[in-house]
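ok trying this again, last paste got cut off
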Amino acid sequence: MSAEATNPEAAPTDVAVRRRGRARIDLRRLGRAALLNATAGPAPRDRLPDAIGHVAEAHRAHHPEADLTVLGRAYVLAESSHRGQFRKSGEAYITHPLAVTLILAELGAETTTLTASLLHDTVEDTEVTLDQVRREFGDEVAYLVDGVTKVEKIDYGAAAEPETFRKMLVATGSDVRVMSIKLADRLHNMRTLGVMRPEKQARIAKVTRDVLIPLAERLGVQALKTELEDLVFAILHPEEYETTRALIAGNPGATDALGSVAEQVTAVLREADIGAEVLVRPRHFVSVHRVRLKRGDLRGCDFGRLLVLVAEDADCYAVLGELHTCFTPVISEFKDFIAAPKFNLYQSLHTAIAAPDGAVAEVLIRTHRMHKVAEAGVVALGNPHVGQEPDAAVPQTDDGERVDPTRPGWLSRLLDWQQSAPDPDTFWTSLRADLAEDDEITVFRADGSAPGTISLPAGASCVDAAYAQHGEGAHACLGARVNGRLAPLSTVLGDGDTVQLLLAQDTVSGPSPEWLDHARTPAARIAITGWLTAHPESPAAPAAPTDPRPQVSVAADRRSGAELHADLDGEPPAAVRPAGCCTPVPPDEITGFRVRGGSVTVHRARCSAADAMRGLGREPVTVRWGDTPQGRVTLVAESFGRPGLLADLTEAIAAFGAAVVSANVEPPSEQRVRHTYTLHLPDVAGLTVLMKAMRDVPGVYDVSRARHAGGLG
């Protein structure tokens, strides 16, 4: 499948050490073999066509009882309808649907998906009609074919790509198998992209990087994601790709060190009587590149990881216990994605161990079932409607669209806000921003109404929760209770928090432009922007004076410590204050914007909230720092939990002469602790010195400026 793909070499023992195991699916080798037979033509009725022999073999490996006759009929229709058509590479066109179907078969897709995959281009590119597909293969196949077919021959111009992906998202929400076929389709197109002009290669690769790869990640289809990453890497970053390729090629025995650790792990697990497979899993090109940027010079163990496969969930923890007992564990590398699965269904234990010779190896521990889901994601789920009564109606939305019961929460959110996007550019920008979010949190509704939970991206605030729960009704939100305590709408929510939104009884209230500083979700940002655009007369966005007046320079109130000045034409502002989202301090480059009540909020120049304000057409205000050296800043310290840590950090802050305005210590998570301090500095010029002093405290691995602090200044 990717640079990680290797061939299996079975071992007879219960604990098998494989330097080349089935950790990745090798589709390229099988794909080439299948394509050699692509023009063989239809076979007699009593047997399958030779051209889909590899597809049938791969399908039977996952589904031994599958009926292959429908695949034979689908291939005959696809081959006859595409006959005479050729790809830009010169190959017969049938090689494309064959390769796409083989990719899905190796991932374990069920028969209906493979049938639709063979036919996915027939309705668009041949004289075959959707009704013909429905008559011959049933409603399910026809639905999937329709979902991946560009039915409308409309020239969208610059909006073509956004409109295509908007349709794809809607189809995916109806049945995730649609996106599975589309991802496999893009993978094969990326493999054969070399025949196109360089500029077109770059355009397709950028779309793949920005949208398709994050979608593959969110759908859990790692086997597709990793190869797409490598193909995009080669096109968009050819020099770095060549450096990485040469690095791997120049270290052919690099994984020998990892193999040695694998043998030691094998012996430990055998002695503990734990049945397991221990595989050496080489990293793919992009993974090697990332590790090299992070660690510099690479050692043998850095070129791969160990994968331990067991039968039951309990065995995973048994393996972890043996490894941490018999080797030196690297505690900071431990993550438990079994007890708390990732949003894309991924489950595994992650750890790292140090062998007696000092080699450090990363280890993944999972069951065989977890491994299948980790590689194939939603493809491994099969038909989302299986198990329903034969005559049962497929669930539908109010507008008649069918609903996939397996679709994840993040996809439901995308479907909700994409309907509100006012134009393709807004949709496209919001889609890319949403897909860039890697983590998800779940918060609970205090009112007990169904559904009882709200899924949000990590870093979301009460503003996001309000719009996720009430839609446009959140315009009247006044505040919130978080875990029973009153909190500002800017409060950043944590996983497991309980939220109660407080709404005004009148219908006149509207959002403040400052809400954009705290909104992370596209649904919230689009709704807020829409209201502000529709209400330009609102006090939230005062009109500029029509009569030219002398420039007024106004200093900020001193609650924030540092002195700020705003240069305005017209009446002076009510106040000039730093924004809580980025807490600027001298000598940060800054910009300002007028907000509700005539105040000026000052942001760091590169703050995302400032970019959003510019995107709304808001005119920036010229602001500058005064001569006062003092200032207020919010710092976040990430650390490993240990006794006395809080006292040591406080001592480091006090030694600098800074005063603690407020402090918050989050509950430990995976042995890690996050401390948030709002500090009053006597001289902000020494901020970098203070941050270094905090990083030097034992156990602290990072100190950074807060990006989403709420209610400051």
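PB: full thing came through this time. The two ends are 52 Å apart (CA to CA).
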